[in-house]
């Protein structure tokens, strides 16, 4: 992999990753109280959450794939070969996935089964029903729930490894540096992402299935590859610095469409095909505009180190693993405690954050647990000299 030059750490990208995962936890807690369907719902929902969540939804996951692609560029530059890179990334992604599916997800899926009318205990569900391959209460093994992001990230990483082996990093770089000419960094990705979404939205389902979610893949995979190219491209960074304002303005205009549709069509109301297509296209264009603006923020104001950056960045993966099952179980239990919605929101957010922190703080000091929660093996500390 001689054509993948070493990449210096970009502190701003680290802060974007930390902030994006923090927003993800807040977003999932808010879904308990928002009008849209989710795993577990509070007895009362709040339409006032529609606008802020509609403004977050289009770009929060796409941003994570861009950031993941950027980080992958730095990782791959340190590997001796493409095979070694693919092996290392498979261990770092698939081992935590397996741990989540075997240990962390069963309680969450048991809650889903309880809500569907299953009267079995957690122990029986975990030891028996969970492993059935056929659908029961709408679920059949294997289920990866929120871990779909890890599955997609692994698949895209393998696609990148294949591309590196066949065409090389230089060719991939050239594909995306075409965007650095003129204002292409604004309009070309918006048109491509929106057009691909509209072309597929009435043909394939919008589901998180690795072999079925082509509507998602045509959006997420190019963003991941763009992040990889950005990691080694001063030209793309220059284009972002020059045109981020225009991208943000277009994102703001698209957000009017997104928010307007969400406010107009609530509950089971569904817009017509033309308006639905316009809404999906606006979401993709909005996502790209916000991402460009956030990348500019990362490269300017956020590109500086802080003592908290390293532990927070390392804690992201363990937090992602644990937050969803903890939140689902707690959101199912606490309405019976008689809390108000405000107190419930604060409790769920605080308890989920505490569980994330505990998973990291405890897991980082246990060598055998580190790979299970997505942490690299601990670096041996140098022996202290005796005076």
Automatic annotation (TrEMBL):
<feature type="transmembrane region" description="Helical">
    <location>
        <begin position="185"/>
        <end position="205"/>
    </location>
</feature>
<feature type="transmembrane region" description="Helical">
    <location>
        <begin position="93"/>
        <end position="111"/>
    </location>
</feature>
<feature type="transmembrane region" description="Helical">
    <location>
        <begin position="285"/>
        <end position="303"/>
    </location>
</feature>
<dbReference type="InterPro" id="IPR002656">
    <property type="entry name" value="Acyl_transf_3_dom"/>
</dbReference>
<keyword id="KW-0812">Transmembrane</keyword>
<feature type="transmembrane region" description="Helical">
    <location>
        <begin position="18"/>
        <end position="38"/>
    </location>
</feature>
<feature type="transmembrane region" description="Helical">
    <location>
        <begin position="244"/>
        <end position="265"/>
    </location>
</feature>
<feature type="transmembrane region" description="Helical">
    <location>
        <begin position="50"/>
        <end position="72"/>
    </location>
</feature>
<feature type="domain" description="Acyltransferase 3">
    <location>
        <begin position="11"/>
        <end position="363"/>
    </location>
</feature>
<feature type="transmembrane region" description="Helical">
    <location>
        <begin position="315"/>
        <end position="337"/>
    </location>
</feature>
<feature type="transmembrane region" description="Helical">
    <location>
        <begin position="217"/>
        <end position="237"/>
    </location>
</feature>
<keyword id="KW-1133">Transmembrane helix</keyword>
<dbReference type="Pfam" id="PF01757">
    <property type="entry name" value="Acyl_transf_3"/>
</dbReference>
<dbReference type="InterPro" id="IPR050623">
    <property type="entry name" value="Glucan_succinyl_AcylTrfase"/>
</dbReference>
<keyword id="KW-0808">Transferase</keyword>
<keyword id="KW-0472">Membrane</keyword>
<keyword id="KW-0012">Acyltransferase</keyword>
<dbReference type="GO" id="GO:0016746">
    <property type="term" value="F:acyltransferase activity"/>
</dbReference>
<feature type="transmembrane region" description="Helical">
    <location>
        <begin position="343"/>
        <end position="363"/>
    </location>
</feature>
<protein>
    <submittedName>
        <fullName>Acyltransferase</fullName>
    </submittedName>
</protein>
<feature type="transmembrane region" description="Helical">
    <location>
        <begin position="147"/>
        <end position="165"/>
    </location>
</feature>
């Amino acid at each position: 992999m001689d054509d993948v030059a070493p990449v210096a750490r970009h502190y701003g990208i680290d802060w974007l990753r930390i902030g994006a995962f923090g927003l993800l936890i807040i977003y999932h807690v808010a879904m308990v109280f928002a009008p849209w369907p989710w795993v577990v719902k509070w007895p009362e929902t709040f339409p006032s959450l529609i606008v802020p969540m509609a403004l977050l939804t289009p770009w929060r996951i796409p941003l994570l794939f861009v950031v993941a692609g950027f980080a992958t560029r730095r990782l791959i530059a340190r590997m001796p070969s493409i095979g070694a890179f693919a092996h290392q990334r498979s261990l770092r992604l698939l081992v935590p996935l397996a741990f989540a599916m075997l240990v962390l997800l069963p309680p969450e899926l048991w809650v889903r089964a309880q809500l569907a009318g299953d009267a079995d205990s957690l122990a029986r569900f975990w030891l028996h029903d969970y492993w059935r391959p056929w659908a029961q209460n709408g679920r059949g093994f294997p289920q990866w729930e929120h871990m779909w992001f890890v599955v997609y990230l692994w698949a895209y990483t393998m696609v990148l490894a294949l591309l590196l082996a066949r065409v090389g990093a230089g060719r991939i770089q050239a594909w995306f540096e075409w965007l650095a000419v003129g204002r292409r960094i604004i309009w070309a990705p918006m048109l491509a992402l929106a057009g691909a979404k509209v072309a597929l939205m009435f043909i394939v389902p919008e589901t998180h299935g690795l072999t079925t979610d082509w509507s998602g893949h045509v959006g997420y995979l190019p963003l991941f590859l763009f992040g990889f190219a950005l990691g080694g491209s001063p030209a793309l960074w220059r284009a972002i610095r020059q045109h981020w304002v225009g991208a943000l303005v277009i994102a703001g205009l698209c957000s009017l469409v997104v928010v307007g549709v969400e406010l107009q069509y609530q509950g089971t109301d569904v817009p017509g095909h033309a308006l639905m297509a316009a809404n999906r296209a606006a979401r993709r264009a909005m996502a790209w505009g916000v991402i460009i603006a956030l990348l500019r923020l990362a490269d300017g104001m956020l590109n500086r180190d802080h003592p908290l950056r390293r532990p927070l960045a390392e804690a992201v993966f363990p937090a992602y693993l644990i937050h969803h099952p903890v939140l689902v179980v707690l959101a199912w239990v606490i309405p019976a405690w008689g809390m108000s919605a405000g107190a419930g929101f604060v409790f769920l957010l605080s308890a989920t954050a505490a569980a994330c922190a505990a998973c990291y703080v405890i897991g980082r000091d246990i060598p055998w647990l580190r790979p299970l929660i997505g942490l690299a093996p601990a670096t041996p500390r140098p022996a202290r000299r005796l005076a």
